[in-house]
Amino acid sequence: MAGSEITRVGVVAHPRKPVHDSVEVLVAYASRHGVELVVRDTDAAQVGAGVPVVSDAEFAAGVDAVVSLGGDGTMLGAMRLAVDRPVPVLGVNYGNVGFLVEIAPAELAGALERLHSGDFEIEPHSCVALEEGDAAVVAFNDVVVGGAEPGATVEVDLLVDGAQFGYYRCDALILSTPTGSTAYNYAAGGPVISPAAEVLAVTPVASMSGVSRSIVLPARDVVTLRSAARSAPPMLRVDGNAWRPLDPATPLTATLRPDAAQVVRLDPGRHARRSRVKLSLLDLPLRPEQMAELLPTEVREDLARLRERRQLPEG
Hints:
Blueprint: E1 8-13, H1 20-33, E2 36-40, H2 41-47, E3 53-54, H3 56-62, E4 65-70, H4 72-81, E5 88-93, H5 108-117, E6 121-132, E7 135-139, E8 142-146, E9 154-160, E10 163-170, E11 172-176, H6 184-187, E12 199-205, E13 209-210, E14 215-218, E15 223-227, E16 235-238, E17 241-245, E18 252-265, H7 268-281, H8 288-292, H9 297-311
Parallel strand pairs: 1-2, 1-4, 2-3, 4-5, 5-18
Antiparallel strand pairs: 6-7, 6-18, 8-11, 8-16, 9-10, 9-15, 10-13, 11-12, 12-14, 15-18, 16-17
Helix pairs in contact: 1-5
């Protein structure tokens, strides 16, 4: 996308993180290039009064690019907003691990110039498209079929292209995209999948009977889930957000939709290396504070000072 094509940029913000410095950078960029910034009503308070507020529908239909200020959860929300009309989504990391987001807040000014000039690459991401009766939703990380109450198990039949594949009796069942393979799916022992692979992983959590291992299906397959009538209706969670109970009388169909989002990559090689390091850290048998104790004293002191500066009140 050339810079001349970017005339309207949508801003999505984490509901609690202090993102005001990045908003100032965005306002300066918009003024310099004659670009309009817009924000949805749900993000207006975080972004500030200087940015026009539009409806969700106008946001999705009218922006040429989206800037996400937050962590991976905020980024997933931004991708869902643009799913019917994929535009470049740039992630600014205000979170913790951050597998999707690429740049730090201090890098935003330069990243916006590169975005405007077209000096970036697009990393396509698949989503799971769900339909249950007349209800529909998409997930870029995962869909989780889990108990509506704590400790409840789920019993679900799995059909692939209409043919019975097997059943699951487990704590939860995860349908994961390649993007979400490093999230709940990974924690449950599922496979790590390249973002370039157009496949859907199905992983049970704490399986008690039925299928006990992950299966990986191609994008062309239509997956159908049916809840056992004798069990309480499980809850469907989409990218970590509760959606609705799974009705035993209404099958849930899931298909992988390739190229459903366009994630901006300014340095794909560097991002891939960072992601590999972050993934390896998840397997370490130490909590972050325990790892910090292994650092030299002067490094721990530098980290403590950095944390103090980040926690200082503005103004």
